[in-house]
Amino acid sequence: MMLKPEPADVGERVDVWLCRRLPELSRARIQALIRGGSIAAPGRALRPNSRVVSGMEVEVTVPPPEPVRLEPEAIPLSIIFEDRDIVVVDKPAGLVVHPAAGHAAGTLVNALLHHCRDLQGIGGELRPGIVHRLDRDTTGVMIAAKNQAAMDALSGQFKAGAVRKEYVALVHGVPAPREGRVETVIGRNPSDRMKMSARVAVGRRAVTRYRVAESFGAVSLVEVTIETGRTHQIRVHMAHMGHPVVGDPQYGSRRRDRGFGAGRQMLHARLLGLRHPRTNEPAVWTAPIPSDFQALLSELRKGPSR
Q1: Which of 149, 173, 199, 226 has the fewest Cβ atoms nearer than 10 Å?
Q2: What is the rounded average pLDDT of the residues 43-68?
Q3: Taking Cα atoms as reference points, which of 88, 90, 92, 107 lies closest to residue 138?
Q4: Quick check: is 15 catalytic?
Q5: Torsion over CA of 58, 64, 68 and 72, rounded to 10 degrees?
């Protein structure tokens, strides 16, 4: 397609102008297309920071998304909601979200590549857009984008803290006070780079709110909302308070976990609320507590509670 600027556009950066004219493309994508020659101005040298001039004509050729090297896999998924822009799933325990070292296959991304037949591509690649993540053994609501516009809109909401995220967890002990707010920085544990820590000099601000919903003496069911989305945030903050998540292999206590039979951390993302990336209408999705979590909770409820 050939685009021509309006008089009011003269003097603006080319990438900014094109981003406004082509909202389906992110600014980073437009810059990459300019550098790669897919966006050009005949007779002019064009760079992302070039200025729009009167009489300019810009030819835009958007190449089709390149297939990724990841293989689609027929992994069963529990779909909560799906349309042409997004897919919302109830992630089970044991499913890694994105391929990484040690997990090149069998991930949520592989499953979505097989399930979603209408992906339009993210960043020039034919893949789903992973906006946020849940740890491998954390269950619950997750959303992924099917196109760049949805990815940008969702990422903006997460970055602005405009997303409602609610969890439930079984933790050791009874947090005091029974309702409160935890704010720390979270960064890499200097003695174990595979773990995060709230006891670091330099890190990223992390805010968690919690409320004890039920207590069973040695264990409590807590409802958690997070204002930020740092790696392992809830698990780190609960451990930081002295109330690690039951069954947590990294931040918990094997001694305290004995007798509970938890094969994983008892942490579940039960609710996700945000605005739909296309309609801007508010939307809320929920996922029921999974069977292993529910079974442990039922056993605890049979005993004395307070």
Answers
A1: 199
A2: 82
A3: 92
A4: no
A5: 150
Interacting residues of 33 by C-beta distance below 8 A, sequence separation 6+ = 25, 39, 60, 62
> In this structure, are residues 201 and 268 in contact, taking their beta carbons and an 8 Å threshold?
no
The Cα 115–Cα 135 span in angstroms is 21
Q: What is the CATH number of the domain that holds 196?
A: 3.30.2350.10
Is 207's pLDDT higher than 50?
yes
What range does the domain containing 154 cover?
A: 66-160
Q: Which of 15, 90, 135, 137 is catalytic?
A: 135
d(CA 217, CA 131): 38
Do residue 76 and residue 137 come from a single domain?
Answer: yes
CA distance 103 to 97: 9
For the chain, count helices (H), then strands (E): 7, 16
CA pair distance 124, 145, nearest whole angstrom: 14
Residue 304 has pLDDT above 60, yes or no: no
Count of structural domains within the chain: 3
Q: Tell me: the pLDDT tens digits for 175-184?
A: 999 999 999 9
Residues in the chain: 306
> Do 184 and 131 share a structural domain?
no
Q: Does residue 48 lie within any of the structural domains?
A: yes
> Cis before residue 177, ω within 30 degrees of 0?
yes
Q: What is the pLDDT of residues 84-106, one digit of tens each?
A: 999 999 999 999 998 775 677 89
Q: Please check whether residue 192 lies inside any domain of the structure.
A: yes
Query: Does residue 211 sit within a domain?
Result: yes
The string of DSSP codes covering 81-122 is: EE-SSEEEEEEPTT--SS-BTTBSSSSHHHHHHHH-S---BB
How crowded is the C-beta side of 71, counted as CA atoms within 13 Å?
7
In a domain, 207, yes or no: yes
Give phi and psi for 227, each to the nearest 5.
-90, -20
